[in-house]
Specification:
3 domains, two-stranded antiparallel ribbon
Length: 461
């Protein structure tokens, strides 16, 4: 009986999932929890439930593995053709297809952050197989996700820097369901030994070049947002020499020679379908509603502001504190400010007195709204108005910049060095592997551990 069959036969998985909490809570436990049996059981239980969901999705992977290489190349060629059509439409004067304004782009970047901040995690559980040449492509893919220990190329570090630059560090606004794909990746990484076919099937699906990656990079650049994280994936997820090609090769190398190939391939296909669970990038982008997001943002602010305003300023007979006393009054409050001329929709936001209170030199409400929250308000006020040039609407500081230098007295570096002291080269590998986990690898000690892992892996062959 396979590991998957054993787990599927346990009827208690639904109860276990219900007691584990929200998807976000499971995500955080898998990301931040200490390694141990409890974490492993949680990962298995969660993964088992997701595989049952995936079993009901349409089958897209061709049944014959010998056709996969050509299938991947054809997919990549079709994506290139669709992107060429997109570029032609844009050059002909067509509008952006994903992000109608900057606030929508920032909404997307924040919504997908739980997945991007664990990039590569699904392969972490395969690191103990570093001696087996059949795993070379998968482990190589994982190490490239980690930037080979270079912070300038580490995918998680790059995305964290992007979030910081755009003021998108408030994870409390991310919907629970948007943690699903990240939690799946963490669970796969925790269970790599028991769920090897599912891991390599998921990897095969995840490393295919998607059209949304190309369009997102193009439109983020137009909006003045650094697209490097996305352009980096365009180059490495190619069907010629990149992760997509390595994914196919890895499946073919790990197929059993005498064992149950049919069961193995069934599980590979099931792992592949895990990619389709939850909301994809295009669905997330299309779910954005600017007015609704403005109201949601104001509701989050309302409990902190409903007693902070003086009574001298009134809108339609109510003080600001009275308007903020109940969430259902927020739409009316915005309308009242419009009626009084404090908000001038479809004009330059600089013409609105309300905007002048929150942005600019001497703004009375400076610091009340985050950069993303200000972008929401800016784009809602601007409406149909477009500036004569594309200068950034909201000034940014460099407070979010991520420093690549390692502090001389970094305690994690000292801890890792002490743990490695006196160990033989092959013994060091077991110490290094936990430092390459999703929670650690983008930090200074994790980056150092990645470089040392690569060095030893090469020398111990």
């Amino acid at each position: 009986m396979t590991a998957l069959t054993r787990l599927e036969s346990q009827p208690a998985h639904e109860h276990a999932m219900s007691t584990a909490g929200s998807v976000k809570h499971i995500y955080q436990q898998l990301l931040l929890g200490d390694a141990g049996e409890q974490k492993r059981v949680l990962a298995q239980t969660f993964l088992r439930a997701q595989l049952q969901q995936a079993a009901g999705l349409p089958e897209e992977l061709p049944q014959e593995p010998s056709t996969w290489r050509v299938w991947v190349e054809q997919h990549c060629a079709e994506v290139a053709r669709q992107y060429a059509d997109y570029l032609q439409q844009r050059k002909a004067g067509g509008p952006r297809q994903y992000f109608s304004h900057k606030a929508q782009a920032l909404f997307f970047l924040q919504a997908v952050a739980p997945t991007k901040l664990v990039d590569g995690a699904w392969l972490h559980g395969l690191l103990p197989q570093w001696r087996d040449p059949r795993f070379e492509g998968l482990i190589g893919t994982f190490l490239e996700e980690l930037g080979d220990g270079n912070p300038a190329r580490n995918h998680v570090a790059i995305y964290r820097k992007l979030l910081a630059e755009q003021g998108l560090q408030d994870s409390g606004v991310i919907a629970d369901g948007r943690y699903l794909q990240g939690a799946i990746q963490l669970a796969l990484g925790e269970c790599g030994d028991d769920f090897l076919p599912e891991v390599i099937g998921y990897n095969l699906g995840y490393e295919q070049l998607p059209l949304h990656l190309l369009i997102s990079a193009y439109e983020l650049s137009e909006l003045g947002i650094d697209p490097y994280y996305f352009t980096l994936h365009v180059t490495i997820d190619n069907a010629s020499t990149g992760h997509a090609q390595k994914a196919v090769q890895s499946v073919l190398q790990l197929l059993p020679l005498e064992g149950d190939r049919e069961d193995f391939l069934r599980r590979v296909a099931l792992g592949y379908r895990l990619n389709d669970l939850g909301q994809g990038s295009r669905v997330i982008i299309e779910s954005f509603d600017l007015y609704r997001e403005v109201l949601s943002m104001l509701e989050r602010k309302r409990p902190f502001g409903q007693h902070m305003h003086s009574d001298y300023c009134r809108f339609e007979g109510k003080t600001v504190n009275q308007w903020l006393s109940a969430p259902e009054q927020l739409p009316g409050f915005l309308t009242a400010m419009e009626n009084k001329g404090w908000i001038k929709r479809h004009q330059d936001p600089q013409d609105s007195r309300f905007w002048q209170l929150i942005e600019g030199d001497g703004a009375a409400m400076f610091g009340v709204f985050s950069p993303y929250e200000k972008q929401l308000l800016h784009d809602w006020i601007a409406g149909d108005w477009t500036p004569e040039h594309s200068a950034p609407a909201i000034r940014r500081s460099n407070r979010g910049a991520v420093e690549a230098e390692v502090p001389a007295n970094d305690p994690d570096i000292h801890c890792l060095q002490a743990a490695l002291q006196g160990l033989a080269a092959h013994e060091q590998m077991a110490v290094l592997i936990p430092w390459l986990s999703a929670h650690r690898h983008s930090h200074p000690a994790g980056l150092m551990a990645t470089r040392r892992f690569i060095e030893l892996k090469s020398s111990l062959r």
